[in-house]
Specification:
Order of helices and strands: HHHHH
Structural class: mainly alpha
Shape: elongated
Helix content: over 70%
Number of helices: 5
Largest sheet: none
Oligomer: single chain
Radius of gyration: 16 Å
């Protein structure tokens, strides 16, 4: 696991970008599910505008990050080793943040399901 975190090769950063994208998609899925319960509201004021419409929320959280990840990956193909190292640090930090967000969503969903039963 530690070697995966430290590995800053293009292939490794690509895997991390894919994982980051998956966590991002899970974030909006959990958010929409939790918001539909009435016990949860979007904490991000920018996304709060978009989650009022499921279509808008999905478009912003699925299409925009996909385009950004693809652009970043192709940009990183020309990156120096130093740039790959820095990119790896940032992408790994974002992975950690999104993992925490998704864990919190799972906790909230579990609590809701326990309370609802």
């Amino acid at each position: 696991m530690l070697s995966f975190i430290r590995d800053h090769s293009l292939a490794s950063v690509r895997k991390k970008l894919i994982l980051l994208y998956i966590l991002n998609v899970l974030d909006i899925v959990f958010t929409l599910i939790l918001q539909s319960t009435g016990y949860f509201m979007e904490a991000n004021p920018v996304m709060a505008v978009f989650v009022a419409s499921t279509f808008s929320a999905l478009a912003v959280k699925i299409l925009l990050p996909a385009a950004l990840c693809i652009f970043l990956y192709y940009r990183l193909k020309k990156a120096t080793d130093k740039q790959l190292k820095r990119s790896n640090v940032l992408v790994t930090a974002l992975l950690f943040i999104y993992a925490c967000i998704n864990i919190l969503h799972m906790i909230w969903l579990s609590l809701y399901l326990i309370h609802a039963s």
